[in-house]
Amino acid sequence: MKIKLVLLAISLLVMLSVSIAPTSARSQFTVQQYQTQFQWRAWASYGSWSYIALNSPVSTEYDLTGKVLHMAFSFAPSVIDLEGESSIYVYDKASGLWIQHEGTIDYRVPGGYYDDFAITSYWRGYLKFNGSPGEGTFDYGVAYQWVYVYLPESDTSVPNTLQGAQWDPVMEAWLIGFSIYIWTSSPYAGTIPFQFVEPVPASDYNPLDL
After folding, report:
1. Are 31 and 60 in contact (CB under 8 A)?
2. Which of the 8 DSSP states describes residue 47?
3. For 26-82, what is each residue's pLDDT tens digit?
4. CB atoms inside a 10 Å sphere around CB 102
5. Cα(129)–Cα(32) distance, rounded to whole angstroms?
6. For the chain, domain boundaries
């Protein structure tokens, strides 16, 4: 797979890994798009983006069955203890958007900046197609990512390793990353100022109205 969601030295790739009953109406397609990422990670000071990548050509593979789009995340280089990588988008008739079924991806990154912490990343977002989802109807999409380490505030190993780490009293965990991804069918020319929002409530798929 070719879509890259940069996470430190980790490239998060989208790959299809879904099993569908043979009786389901089903189609598979690949979307070619541009990806722009606004990223903060806790090896940098909190309050501004530590990395911005504009208009990287990527592709994403989807499996459509009824009103549900299936896809899955994987990492390269590999991570360990990976759970929750499957994800779906469900069509919302009122908005005309395909809204991500929010969840978490858990994993460890051996060595490096993350020092083998157990990581939980929250995901939220949506996709917009002009008509039925397919290879040529993709318009744009947004994804939010929050990266946490669930250790108590009294555990100083996280801020000692990642000096920009922030204690989040809402999530009761150490915040070590926040990203916004913009996917577009043509090059993206906008900018997004750093503005942190909590990953709750879970029903808010687009908290910054992007």
Report:
1. yes
2. T
3. 899 999 999 999 999 999 999 999 999 999 998 889 999 988 999 877 676 678 888
4. 18
5. 13
6. 5-18+26-184
